[in-house]
Amino acid sequence: MLRELDKIYYFMKRDMLSFSTYKTNIVLSVLSALFGALSYAFLGANASMQSVLQLYDMSLTTYLVIGIAFNTYLAQSLTLVQKTINPWALEEVLVSPTRLTTFIVGSSLWGFIWSTGVIAIYLAVGVLAFGVVLSVNLVGTLLVLTLGISTFVGFSMIGAGILILTKQGDPVTTLITIATGLFGNVLFPPQVMPVQLQIIAYFVPQYYFFTCIRLMLTGKPIGLILPDLLILVLMCAVIVPLGYFIYSWCLKTARKNGTLSWF
Predict the structure, then answer these.
(1) How far apart are the first and last CA of the chain?
(2) Distance from C-alpha of 37 to C-alpha of 42, rounded to nearest angstrom
(3) How big, in percent rounded to 5, are the helix, strand and coil portions of the chain?
(4) Structure pTM?
(5) How many structural domains are present in the chain?
(6) Which of 25, 77, 182, 187 has the fewest CB atoms within 10 Å, measured from its CB?
(7) Cβ of 128: how many Cβ atoms within 10 Å?
(8) Quick one: pLDDT band at residue 46, thresholds 50, 70, 90?
């Protein structure tokens, strides 16, 4: 167990050192988060959406800042596994005495640490510049984050598995990204859309994630999100094992066919 933890640490250290060499990219990422937060906060400060107040009991500014901030985690999770399958790393690791889960966790840890910093920038701008009031239900927030991130890692494994076999792109990431923007409850509640489109929102986990995380960050009790939370638990319980099975099967198939490093 300690040996696996050491490996996770060194995978993270590798990514952190690599990331730190791109100083211009670091500055641009920070500025992007800063001005992104300002843009959406200004939108919320100068717009009105009665449905947000009715559904979530919060201002549009708070709604937008939380949605944009925590979409960073989901975006990171959705591309997590794909980032580990470059041909100069994946094949070498798989022939070493390293577990697949260790490789995935170790290769993704730094990305989540950086995403946490970006989220902190969004929330800080919202609180300090635009009066966003946060009252964090810590247990509920951590539970919702765990379920949301895990579910999107499941999607990432499915997309990466398809990419390993087809070498032609990842349709899963594209479809999930589109679904997040349209039906995921990031920028506007699905309830403002026509009924036919509202129905679609109830079949995507993003809707339940953003519904729950907003209420947990504004001090609501867990009991208030229990129905949505249970649906998110069910989706996570299906998508994560399915994703791991598909990814493992695609890896085995590519190794058997000798096409693992064909990128």
Answers:
(1) 33
(2) 8
(3) 80, 0, 20
(4) 0.74
(5) 1
(6) 25
(7) 9
(8) very low
Type of residue at 155: F
Closest CA to 240 of 166, 135, 158: 158
Q: What is the mean pLDDT of residues 239-257?
A: 85
- 90 alpha carbon, distance to own chain's centre: 22
Q: How far apart are CA 143 and CA 136, in angstroms?
A: 12
Task: Answer whether residue 180 is part of any domain.
Answer: yes
Rg from Cα positions in the chain:
19
- Name the residue type at position 196: Q
- Which of 69-73, 102-106, 121-125, 151-155 comes out lowest in average pLDDT? 102-106
Structure tokens at 120: 């902190």
Structural domain span for residue 175: 2-257
What is the residue whose two structure tokens read 């549009």?
Answer: 60
Quick check: is 262 in a domain? Answer: no
Name the β-bridge partners of 135.
Answer: 218
- Tokens read off for 249: 């099967």
Contact 151, 172 (CB under 8 A): no
